[in-house]
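step 3/5: co-fold with 6-hydroxyuridine-5'-phosphate
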Amino acid sequence: MDWRVYASRVIVALDPPSGVEPIEWASRVWGSVAGFTAGFKVGWPLVLRAGAGRVSGFACKSGGLRLLDLKLADVAHVMKLVLEELVDCFDAVIAHAFIGGEGALIELRDYLEEHGAKLVLVYSMSHPGARETFDACRSVLDAVVRSVSPWGLVVPATRVEVVREVRVKHGDLVLFSPGVGAQGGEPGAAICAGADYEIVGRSIAWSDDPLSSLRSLAERGARRLAECRVDG
Ligand code: BMP
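step 4/5: write tokens
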């Protein structure tokens, strides 16, 4: 299988390392991998260092699937205030599922829809501590997902058994799986378990040559997909 098949399922996390000019850095990294990957995700590291206005400018002029990952977890009106300067330049916004629907996620989902953006909820996380919290209240989070009907969910590439279960339980949702590469997740494993996209940050974006790092990760990913017969 061609490496490009796997690369087309990669979302690149553009979290700038310390000491770089953040927008120049994001533009350079995205410029070198944009033609091969599905999209990018930006979060607090870029927004706090560059400012919402400049991040909006960068996202508005960039192609691909643009995810805004502020992992929102507040009452509805505050989440909307936070998004004011950013929402129109992104295709989807990530919020925490655990805050629940009424007064929070339902209003946020409707607000995003008015602005042409979609809601993605964090269902579980990729770090080991997520087992103590997210995984311990899976049935509560399932009920939130059913009542809010988001467009997508974040599920950990480091624990693909969670991805597999979520694919069965919430079959029609778009699944984004972070934790590939630097955190130990094997490229392709989450897609084989049912994820739609794998999120990769440092292994690609912090490399001196992001395109060749994408390519070597994607060669491993494509071999894995060939084994589980996901053909993109
Ligand atoms: P990296 O590949 O460099 O470890 O980056 C992973 C990216 O995915 C980061 O932007 C992080 O915020 C995000 N992420 C994660 O690592 N685990 C999660 O459970 C949820 C995330 O959004």
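step 5/5: annotate
Residues 13, 15, 43, 69, 125-126, 154, 156, 178-179, 181-183, 199-203 surround 6-hydroxyuridine-5'-phosphate (CB under 6 Å).
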